[in-house]
Amino acid sequence: MNNNLRIKEIIREKGISVNQFAEMLGIERQNVYNVFTKPTFQRLEQCSELLNVPISELFEKDSTEINGYVEYKGAIYRISDLQSFQNLSDIISNNNKQIEE
To answer: Does domain 7-58 correspond to CATH entry 1.10.260.40?
Structure first.
């Protein structure tokens, strides 16, 4: 998942150390890296609540016309253009075909 998360930047802005953030999340410090790089949607919701920011603020902004994130089967996909939307659609379609077979 390539998502350009800002969680580490936000905790720095709020004066929260990585150790403090790990405690807030109820996880070990060494597991915080996964939160910074490939969190689940549930973990994003938790970060949003703990940091008192909307989930959208956890991601870098860009100027594309299409901009969003979709969770599918536990993975978060960034939709930034028609091609990335089509790629996700293909993944879902292929997955559904495999289930039908």
So the answer is: yes
